[in-house]
Amino acid sequence: MLVFRKPIQGVERPQMPADVVIVGGGPAGMACALRLAQLIDAHNSTYPDSQLSKENIYVLEKAREVGQHCLSGALLDPRSMRELLPGFEKEAPLDAEVNKEAVYFLTQKSKFKLPITPSPLRDHGNYVISLNRFVKWLGSKVEATGITIFTGFAGSELIFSDDTNEARVTGVRTDDKGVDKEGRPKSNFEPGYDLNAKVVILAEGPRGSLTKQLTDKFDLAKDANPQTYGVGVKELWEVPSGRVAKGEVIYTMGWPLTTKEYGGAWIYGGKDNIVSLGFVTGLDYPDPRLDPQHVLQEFKRHPFVAKLLEGGKMIRYGAKSMPYGGWWAVPPVAGNGWMILGDSAGFVNSARLKGIHLAIKSGMLAAETAFEALRKDDSSLATLGGFQKKVESSWIKDELWKVRNMHQGFENGFYAGMFHTALQMVTGGRGLRNRYPAKAGHEHMRMLAELPADGGAEAHLLGPAKGDGKLTFDKLTDLYHSGTKHEEDQPSHLIIHDTNICEQRCVKEYGGPCQNFCPANVYELLDDASAPNGKRISLNPSNCVHCKTCDIADPYQIITWVPPEGGGGPNYDGM
Amino acid sequence: MPDTILVVVEQREGKLNRVSWETITAGQAISAATGWPLEAAVVGASPAAIAAEVATKKLAKVYGVESPKLEPYTPDAFAAGLKQFIASKQPKLVLMPHTYQVRDFVPKLATAMGRTVISDCVRFKHENGKLLFTRQMFQGKLAADVSFTSDAPWFATFQNGAFRGDKAEAGASPAPIETATVEIADSAIRNKPREVFKEAKQAVDLTQAEIIVSVGRGIKEQKNIELAKQLADALGGDLAASRPICDSGWLPMDRQIGSSGQTVAPKLYLALGISGAIQHIVGMKGSRTIIAVNKDSEAPIFEIADYAIVGNLFDIVPPLIEEVKKAKAGG
Questions:
Q1: How far, in Å, CA of A289 to CA of A304, rounded?
Q2: The pTM is what?
Q3: Distance between CA A296 and CA A276 in Å, rounded?
Q4: Domains of chain B with CATH codes
């Protein structure tokens, strides 16, 4: 019997007042905290008679340590960091400055280099970084200001003033600790805290669970395009020297994907012969048997890639979703008592495949607005709405506006996508019309009955990867290298709202795509003669790497990802 | 009545819990800061001996709160007895160590008196005539100063180690001891204590096992575990499992081998129906001899097995049990 996580009812929770609570200690949240501290410090030295305190500003981070759950390629566009901390290059952990880039189109056996690198993918002046090390460093800057980061504490739900549409967000409830598999308090039970905050800032990364709660409550997505996502599956390799130069950047399109899927790969050369490689698969593919972890394995088998990795060693693995619906998919980002930042808002440039610099910028702008709110002691929409305006008049919008229709152009496959992209490039992002519509990715998934039984042209991407143990790996072996770990005796934090749908419908209609899209082997359909279609859904929540793919890609939209007991999750290092 | 501080000393079956000295040290410090006299109480069926021991410390008075109903310990009797005693003495502040026993009865006691407890304190402060207690929050990342807004008596408990028991000041002369008999109605005691037992920390210690028979998903059903158990018994070994088996509740968690379970290195490790994901392998690869039975000839377990048996474990294990038994009988 599966029991799903939810806040324990009927317990008295410690109440704690707060000025600002930032949920999520990634680049957006940390930049927000740091900027806020800068503004308060500047204010306090200018106005000795009206001091503002930093003591009641908190960052909640579900990872045991700062940065542990952060994963990206990653290339950093330094624009926002130069605004936040001029001269940051001198002390931040940067692996290399990009000095060489190339884009290839791959067929099964060959590669074609694009004669010129398209301007969005020109990366000279950007830095190859490990996002989790970078955020760890940023976190140390935040802590030095006196702002408290609660590591190991997740935001489990938002607290609202009332049940109406006019409600304001009044705080965040942290996760209950010490709850067993059946949802009963254990001897070490500690109820989550109610942080009653003037301003709640959601910086949870893609598909944030509190952002989802907020979006549902206020129907925030109603005027936006549905957000579309890809999942990036990443491996870190140590390779013999001379394979990929430090600061070298390679992008590929094409193989192993067919024209029906959206996505591509990156290969970045870091220092000490460490290579970051990964494959982003758009979570709008048609075949439910497709497995993004398998896609990465197939990619590595391409002669071009296999040669780069030969004799090397895979040292880390991880996965994370990314939103690339673009400007039209960004919901309202401020309201009564709340603001949304970074990937949670969808600030990703889908043409450049970059969002870290936008996350940081959005954090800085939100900090300016939060500072206003503290100074005026008003955190209603009247004040926080300023963040919305700041975003719209900042270079975040400039950058996203030019590529506002980028991903939508690919909704009907690769060739149509290339046509629209070309058109958009010469029309300042407009293309055929100002706003291209979009469908949510999961709506593109097709039932097994409509697809060739043998997988057709996609056969090489379907089902679990076998792995040779050297170049390619099965999912569990990869997963081991994520270092993920959770308290085992806790309710499942993957909430399936109706498991009957899994067993009665999904097994027949889609064949259980959760087993395939999850890059961490959380979902399994086990043989069970007593189940209606001979299969029973089984979960391994402690395998989860917090990528949120299930919440996004499930065709019935019955999975909700919520944070597990704080402290659990992947242990990314160098990712 | 003048304001007093009362330390409730912990005893169980006539033995003083040493952590009580820490609470007395705390009480002495608060007494010095506030000027409120410090008293102590020993609660039990025959508290006299412990009361005498406690009376060696610098205290204004020691009470023996006495009733035959206080032995053996029950939360109902302690709450009822102390409620009566505290109501009659009206101390300003009641201090206790934050022990399991106190945690068991003090919420009941305070609620029965309509008062609150500030529990698990690590420090106190006396500022501008106000008594503040410091509690840890967010797993020790924050410290909160908390004060009472309700009427006395106030209840507070101190965390183990918050004060030093050896710093409890001795009195110049023994403190006077007074016996306070409390009446506890039988009907007030709803708990019936049974024999005290210690829960085994770990029922099995697989790290010490010489022979381990381990089962994986290939065992198919819970009832088939018996087969593996028979083999383990025949070999004189212990039964273990991979994660899915323990996760399904077919075997207890303490028998799980692997990255989220135990790491073992027996002389013989027999893996039945275990595919050998790396998460399992890291927990047993140090075994001296590994025998693996699996019907999938490509199962990764075979890469580290010394003896690989490709086949259905239900065909292989029963005759194996017979052979082991025969060999043992013959040998």
A1: 26
A2: 0.88
A3: 12
A4: 5-188 (3.40.50.620), 206-330 (3.40.50.1220)
- Interface mutation vs chain A, best among B120, B138, B243, most A CBs within 10 Å: B138
Q: How far does B63 lie from chain A, in Å, by closest CA?
A: 33
Q: Following DSSP, what letter does each residue of A149-174 receive, concatenated?
A: EEET--EEEEEES-SSTT--EEEEEE
> Residue A474 phi/psi, 5° resolution?
-75, 170
- Residues of A within 8 A of B303 (CB-CB) are 469
What span, in angstroms and rounded, lies between the C-alpha atoms of B243 and B215?
10
Per-residue tens of pLDDT for chain B, all 331 residues? 689 999 999 998 888 999 999 999 999 999 999 999 999 999 999 999 999 999 999 999 999 999 999 999 999 999 999 999 999 999 999 999 999 999 999 999 999 999 999 999 999 999 998 999 999 888 788 889 999 998 999 999 999 889 999 999 999 999 999 999 999 999 999 988 888 777 655 567 888 899 999 999 999 999 999 999 999 999 999 999 999 999 888 999 889 999 888 888 899 999 999 999 989 998 998 899 999 999 999 999 999 999 999 999 999 999 999 999 999 888 6
**B141 touching A, CB under 8 A?**
yes
A15-73+135-226+327-402 maps to CATH 3.50.50.60? yes
What distances in angstroms separate CA A343 from CA A28, A221, A398, B110, one per listed residue?
Answer: 8, 15, 17, 48
Closest CA in chain B for residue A521: B277
From the list B319, B293, B311, the residue with the least C-alpha distance to B234 is B319
ipTM: 0.76
Which CATH code, of 3.60.15.10, 1.10.10.10, 3.30.70.20, 3.90.1640.30, is assigned to A465-561? 3.30.70.20
Gap between the Cα atoms of A119 and A426, Å rounded: 12
How many alpha carbons fall within 13 Å on the CB side of residue A239? 25
Distance, CA of B323 to CA of A503 (rounded, Å): 43
- Architecture, CATH, for domain A93-131+227-321: 2-Layer Sandwich (3.30)
